[in-house]
Write a structure and sequence with these properties.
This protein is α/β, with parallel strands linked by helices. It contains 16 helices and 10 strands. The chain has helices at 12-15, 38-41, 54-71, 87-100, 134-143, 170-189, 195-205, 211-214, 218-229, 235-243, 250-258, 261-264, 267-281, 289-301, 312-318, 324-335, and strands at 4-9, 19-20, 79-84, 103-109, 120-122, 126-129, 152-156, 322-323, 339-343, 367-371. A hairpin with a 3-residue loop joins β5 (120-122) and β6 (126-129).
């Protein structure tokens, strides 16, 4: 597969501030936070639902209707088009579609190195294929009866879809997150930080066998890597504790860790532990704030950071690029009058610029657009 540069752009060129992250607080200030209008939406509590929860569909559909009222007042939404890269995106799409009662379809993209991944339909609403096959997907949807017009809501996932395309450029996103984790842990531990021990801990703990503790949550994983790097527990002892039933969730582990002498022996470590505990006790799914703020910085540093002479292999490894096929497909849908938005389960702390900070939000950073081939018109 030959990749080519197709210019530069910002995600905000496509979505404006119609971007929604984990807390379901739209970046566009004309729109309310879900936590502020949860009763109006019909939710059971102000806690923002996650992408895997049924309430997510109701909340997202409500926000999409509010966005539609800003873009096309009086024009009802009839259908939903979703572009993503994971089974979680398929679930989120179906939750929104079911809650709203709309027709629709989802495309799940992934490039396969040195392999073919043509566009294929799996059931009534699910399509899969390489990113290059996305350009023909819209026409296939029209042939299948979708209007793709002012009555269409388009939702695009961000990480490993709109940027850092899965199977092509996703490693650059993973490296930014890992660099953030290592930077924060090294700052917390200071002279006690051992990069080899951290690397070994991350490789080991980033596996499904530890999910009872890490819960497949990057904040929990980062804290657990911190505890192992500080010598609070070894991966082997953690695995034994999980298998014996001593730890059945992250809360069990963090409470135990706080009772260990090693956790209190390093001042910076104890301070971070207390901060993470306070957010866990509040039910915040993003409790390791320092790690996520650093992830935002590391992500932005890897956007538009390479000059034109860089090889494409280096660019796909070191620079987080916009997926050209998603860029073109979204532009085409915009031209047809569709409402175009982006929803992501990534936390705001790793995505949106904090007040009075010189770091921009991810969707506002200019970076290179890369695609499999530039279509000739």
């Amino acid at each position: 597969m030959t990749l080519e540069l197709a210019g530069k752009g910002r995600l905000s060129d496509l979505f404006g501030d119609f971007v929604v992250f984990r807390r379901m607080e739209p970046a566009d200030r004309r729109l309310p936070s879900v936590a502020d209008v949860w009763r109006e939406i019909g939710l059971e509590s102000p806690r923002p639902p996650r992408k895997r929860e049924r309430a997510y569909g109701k909340a997202a559909a409500w926000l999409l209707r509010r966005m539609q009222n800003l873009v096309h007042p009086g024009a009802p939404l009839r259908e939903l088009v979703f572009i993503g890269d994971t089974a979680g995106d398929v679930n989120a799409f179906r939750l929104i579609k079911s809650a709203a009662g709309w027709n629709g379809a989802i495309f799940v993209g992934k490039d396969i190195p040195d392999g073919e991944n043509p566009l294929r339909r799996e059931g009534d609403d699910l399509w899969r294929g390489s990113w290059s096959s996305l350009l023909g997907w819209g026409h296939a949807l029209m042939s299948a009866g979708l209007g793709l017009d002012e009555g269409t809501a388009v939702v695009v996932d961000i990480d490993k879809t709109a940027i850092g395309a899965r199977g092509r450029n996703n490693g650059a996103i993973d490296r930014a997150r890992l660099a953030a984790m290592q930077t924060v842990i090294s700052e917390v531990l200071g002279e006690h930080f051992d990069p080899e021990r951290f690397a070994e801990a991350y490789r080991e703990l980033n596996q499904a066998r530890y999910h009872l503790v890490t819960e497949d949550n990057q904040d929990y994983l980062a804290y657990t890597c911190l505890a192992v790097s500080a010598g609070v527990i070894s991966p082997e002892a953690l695995c034994d504790a999980i298998e014996s039933g001593r730890f059945s969730q992250f809360g069990d582990f963090i409470r135990w860790a706080g009772e260990q002498h090693a956790m209190r022996s390093i001042p910076g470590l104890w301070s971070i532990h207390q901060e993470v505990v306070s957010f866990v006790e509040r039910g915040d799914p993003t409790p390791f704030k320092a790690f996520r703020h650093e992830e935002l910085r590391q992500t932005v540093l890897r956007m538009g950071n390479l000059d034109a002479p860089a090889s494409m292999d280096e660019r796909m490894r070191e620079e987080i690029c916009i997926t050209g096929e998603v860029w073109l497909a979204t532009q085409w849908l915009l031209e047809r009058g569709a409402l175009v938005t982006s929803f992501s389960d990534k936390p705001e702390e790793a995505s949106l610029a904090p007040p009075d900070d010189d770091i921009p939000s991810v969707h506002q950073v200019e970076t290179d657009i890369v695609m499999a081939e530039i279509p000739r018109r």
